[in-house]
Amino acid sequence: MAGYIHVDHVKKIYDSGKDVVEAVSGVSFVANKGEFIAILGPSGCGKSTLLMMCGGLEPTSAGTITIDGQEVTGPRANIGVMFQDSTLLPWKTVLENILFPVKIQRRPLAAYRERALELIEMVGLHGFADMKPHQLSGGMRQRVAICRALVTNPDILLMDEPFSALDAMTRDEMNDALLDIWDRYPKTGLFVTHAIREAVYLADRVLVMTKRPATLVADIRIPFDRPRDPSINNRAEFNDTCDQLRRLIEHKRTPWSETKAA
Amino acid sequence: MTTGPAIRHKPSSETAYTLGLPIGLGVAVLIGWQLAVRLAGISPVILPAPSDIVQSFGGVGGELLRQGWVTGFEALFAFVLSCLFGVAAALFLGFSTVAFETFYPGLVVFQIIPKIALAPLFTFWLGIAATSRLSYALFISFFPVTLATMTGLKRADTNALRLCHALGASRLQAFVAVQIPYALPYFFSGAKVAATMSIIGIVIGEFISANAGLGYYILRAQSYSETAHMFAAILVLCGIGLLLYIIPVQAERWVRRWWWD
Description:
Low-confidence stretches of chain B: 1-7
CATH superfamily of the largest domain in chain A: P-loop containing nucleotide triphosphate hydrolases
Oligomer: heterodimer
Strand content of chain A: 15-25%
CATH class of the largest domain in chain B: Mainly Alpha
CATH topology of the largest domain in chain B: MetI-like fold
Largest interface: A-B, 21 and 19 residues
Number of helices of chain A: 9
Mean pLDDT of chain B: 90
Shape of chain B: globular
CATH class of the largest domain in chain A: Alpha Beta
Order of helices and strands of chain B: HHHHHHHHH
Mean pLDDT of chain A: 90
Structural class of chain B: mainly alpha
Helix content of chain A: 25-40%
Radius of gyration of chain A: 18 Å
CATH architecture of the largest domain in chain A: 3-Layer(aba) Sandwich
Distance between the termini of chain A: 44 Å
CATH superfamily of the largest domain in chain B: MetI-like
Largest sheet of chain A: 6 strands, mixed
Distance between the termini of chain B: 30 Å
Number of strands of chain B: 0
Radius of gyration of chain B: 24 Å
Helix content of chain B: over 70%
Number of domains of chain B: 2
Largest sheet of chain B: none
């Protein structure tokens, strides 16, 4: 069967008794193994909810998600996650934070220590293994979070706006770091973002989501080969793709959501 | 380089300032008190001068130390018990939602009772032995620990808990790995309250029924109108209170070092 992650007519409805909110209304897509897919949309369009459902962190209200032919019913050991916040434990060192999944999943610590140190080197945190999170900058903390997501070598990486809290320069650095990681350790990735250029720079495919209804309106293939470098930012194709995506989002945006987003 | 000494000088002058002001105030109050008592000719039975209080240490210093030892030891014991019991209750209520919903409203209602009114009941039920005083002190001081620790357990970073969930952690794993460490600083704020409450509990117990301890000593001195001795005993109580208070403060400092260094 073709495809690795199948999302099939998935809905998410929050029913508080008073209000019924349809956060995700009928989304379907297929991700192939090794593909990096960006889910692009305005804030509040349900893209994070969709990601959480793929990770088994939220149940679906309707529809099914399967990974490698198995239906997702809860968290899985072969998925790494990154959130907007680095979510490091402040009393643990960089190394201990990276090894946290190993400890929680009761894997042999000694076997993963080597890998953790290698990841620390790779993201450019040499010499920081024994530091505490408060001694690091925001970008460095998010690098630690990447290492933590990768330490158990998961097949899938779910990223929920991981760089949106960082300043523009740090964000560019992190994008390059993530591209490097993708070349070294190819994985299947779902990356939620509301930044158009980031989506185009990183992804093989961009899925465009809108709110009301919270559904997919486009599935755009990004025509750049890997490895990628910052020079593609200046290519005409890059800007054309960005424009195309911007029009898709703006076209679908209702005046109400525009005032809300401002 | 010329600014170097000025920068280094600043903190020490600030320390002198922040230390000097309250100490200066204390000295001024003592001098004012001494002068007021002497000049107005107030009877030492009503209000002894600071010098009278200091003098009384000469006569009854040994006795005060003996009685202070009894009170201090019982207060320390009550403090340790209330920390243990308070944390155990918080862990139980924090981990089990059913337990929380069953016990917590009752606990809160119980806290509304002016607990001092219940002190005679403890003597009635448990007699005049140390057990009754310890139980009473434990009774009034464990709740601040429970409340503070429980608040901490609930304030744990929700993202960290989501991460645990994503990693497939069990409820117990997340509780131990994330919630308990996050609750530690909160526990200490509860423990500081418990340190002062436990000594209050013991002294009240001694007021009601005891044949030793500073509470008992204060009442006996009162019956002989030895006001200076009462003040001296209160001073010793202050010292004990301070020593007890230092325990959670110091422990918190260690934990902070573990968190941040």
